[in-house]
Predict the 3D structure of the following.
Amino acid sequence: MTFDEEWGVPTEFIDDWGNERGSFIDPADIDSHVSPEQRRLFHRLAKTQKGIDNKGRRTKDSNRQHRRRKKEELLHTVTSQLELAPHQKEQAKVIFMSLDLQRLGLPMELVAFCLCVLVARQDGRMYHPNRSKANNDEQFRKFAQSLSEKEQSLIVKTLNRLQHRLSDKLNW
């Protein structure tokens, strides 16, 4: 189990934005001296904690939480790789969580990347696929190269679509 040096707790107990979560049950930590009834209870509680009900299916509410958590995790990964400032990460999070990604019909990772490009422009970090290497931010260029060819071909379209939809939320 890895520990976060800053928070002093296992990394799986810290959410992506640095907040320590409540107590979580790790089935691997359940002592073998615990009675079978308690062991079953702890395993069931661990499943509930993960959003899975007793039949192995996610509940409607836990599906919503799971999608939200997935969006948060993805955005945290992208903002960290792009080395955005804390205020930029927070602004990107607020906007990204409010987006209806199904309606956009674009890959979630691509939308997160393009949103970060737009948010970072406020502080002078520029990226656009049609600009020369020298005029593009190095982190953004490297991240864009890691995207699939299909996603790379959609960057301009996604930037334009987000810029149009979010003009009121972006302060330029």
